[in-house]
Specification:
CATH superfamily of the largest domain: Histidine kinase-like ATPase, C-terminal domain
Structural class: alpha+beta
CATH architecture of the largest domain: 2-Layer Sandwich
Strand order of the largest sheet: 2-1-5-4-3
CATH topology of the largest domain: Heat Shock Protein 90
Number of helices: 11
CATH class of the largest domain: Alpha Beta
Number of domains: 3
Largest sheet: 5 strands, antiparallel
Shape: elongated
Strand content: 15-25%
Number of strands: 10
Length: 354
């Protein structure tokens, strides 16, 4: 088979739509596959311009690249765009345009190849919708958990905490009366009072972990500072907090997000790091707010370690505000959790939620 015969065979039998066009974008030849894709006869295709086969916005992008081809800036390009059939329906196609090679000098012809990728685009769109629904669900679950934690914290503080405090006061009064009466049971009453007092303190601390009034009334700086102080005292991990001046108009939801990420990261340090020290830094980097929580503990290989629930929850919280989470860890040298949120994008995401 001659070279020309081989080309004609490929041109006529391939399932990919092929057209030969001039440098003005007008089809000169079209194979049966392209005619079938577009629903036009070859004669009808030759009477049209390539821009007529797509919606205006897609045709505009295609024609801009075609002009670069005309000018010699490029000799080929690849583009995914919509095509309009003769009956008005549309399909997605992958279009590749290339200058034909000409041994005698510059070519005045181009080859256009079109592959139907509608199924691929439909699958991508379905996947994007599914991901969007999952993100919405995750956001709602996090919000529901916050509301439930706040309710439980209030119950602990306002009901159980108050009742245990009254019990401790009653036991103290009992100890005093027994001591005054010379009863040797005062030691037992004193021990019961001490245990009740410890229980009241634990309930108070638990309610603060579930919900921080300081965050709501005094802001992110104060809440994070108090969180670090509590960990230093309760967990015996020296926790240093440093913060730069931040904008005063941070969305309330973003402040809660950053606080919860810091809280989760510190909990991971307490549970897993064996570190005697922790460091929390809140800073501004251009248009972004950056939270860094690091330790000097055992670390891990971040390239092979699987993300736990804590890291996944942090990422989901940040995703709501179009933020990112980075994990840097070296075995034996500690771990750094870095949360970064662009303030303008976070505000726009907050506005969309409202």
């Amino acid at each position: 088979m001659t070279e020309g015969g081989l080309f004609e065979s490929i041109f006529g039998t391939t399932a990919i739509g092929i057209a030969v066009e001039d440098l003005e974008g007008r089809p000169l030849f079209a194979n049966p596959a392209l005619c079938s894709l577009l629903g036009f006869t070859e004669a009808e295709l030759r009477s049209k311009h390539c821009q007529e086969f797509s919606p205006p916005e897609d045709a505009e992008r295609d024609w801009a690249l075609f002009k670069e081809l005309q000018q010699g800036s490029i000799d080929n390009y690849l583009l995914e765009k919509r095509f309009i059939r003769k009956d008005g329906t549309t399909f997605w196609g992958r279009l590749r345009i290339s200058l034909m090679k000409n041994r005698g000098g510059p070519s005045s012809l181009v080859v256009a190849m079109v592959e139907d990728i509608t199924e691929k685009k439909t699958a991508e769109a379905n996947l994007q919708r599914s991901e969007a629904r999952l993100q919405t669900l995750a956001s709602r679950l996090i919000q529901a958990r916050e509301e439930e934690q706040r309710r439980i914290a209030q119950e602990l503080h306002d009901d159980l905490g108050q009742r245990v405090t009254l019990l401790a006061l009653g036991l103290e009064e009992l100890r005093t009366r027994l001591a005054e009466a010379g009863q040797d049971s005062s030691e037992l009453a004193s021990d019961l009072h001490s245990k009740a007092d410890e229980l009241a303190t634990d309930i108070h601390n638990l309610s603060r972990q579930l919900y921080s009034p300081k965050l709501e009334f005094l802001g992110l700086h104060s809440a994070l500072r108090r969180l670090c102080e509590n960990i230093s005292v309760q967990q015996h991990i020296s926790t240093t907090f440093h913060a730069e001046e931040l904008p005063t108009n941070l969305p309330r939801g973003l402040e809660l997000c950053i606080f919860r990420v810091a809280q989760e990261a510190l909990n991971n340090i307490i549970k897993h790091s064996n570190s005697p020290k922790a460091f929390v830094e809140l800073a501004r980097a251009g248009d972004a707010i950056v939270l860094i929580v690091k330790d000097l503990g055992i670390g891990f290989d971040s390239a092979t370690a699987k993300a736990g629930i804590g890291l996944s929850t942090m990422r989901e919280r940040l995703r709501k505000f179009e933020g990112e989470l980075f994990v840097e860890s070296i075995p034996g040298k500690g771990t750094a959790i870095i949360a970064k949120v662009n303030l303008e994008r976070a505000k726009a995401a907050t506005a969309r939620e409202c």
